[in-house]
Amino acid sequence: MSGPRDEFAIMAILCRRPDGVTQQSVADAMGVSRQRVSQLEQGKRNPTLATACDMARARGYRLALVPVED
Q1: Half-sphere exposure of 17 toward its Cβ, with a 13 Å CA cutoff?
Q2: How many CA atoms lie within 13 A of 63 on its CB side?
Q3: Residue 3 main-chain phi, psi, to 5 deg
Q4: Does residue 14 sit within a domain?
Q5: Number of domains present in the structure of the chain
Q6: Which of 7, 16, 60, 65 has the highest Cβ tally under 10 A?
Q7: Do the beta carbons of residue 58 and residue 24 sit within 8 Å?
Q8: What is the DSSP letter of 42?
Q9: Mind listing the pLDDT tens digit for each residue in 4-34?
């Protein structure tokens, strides 16, 4: 995986799976379908900024810009 969509997919999974949270519970908190969460986690959908913020909030996170270290 590479690219922003894939990086988002990885982060979405890492924010959900360790706590045993289901895609359905994230979807319910976001007001979207479980299939949409699945597509985001698989890198099949390109999330809007609003969707990314909603997903982060659903798991108790917020989006932030972090400097890249080369």
Answers
A1: 8
A2: 13
A3: 100, 160
A4: yes
A5: 1
A6: 16
A7: no
A8: T
A9: 888 889 989 998 888 889 999 999 999 999 9
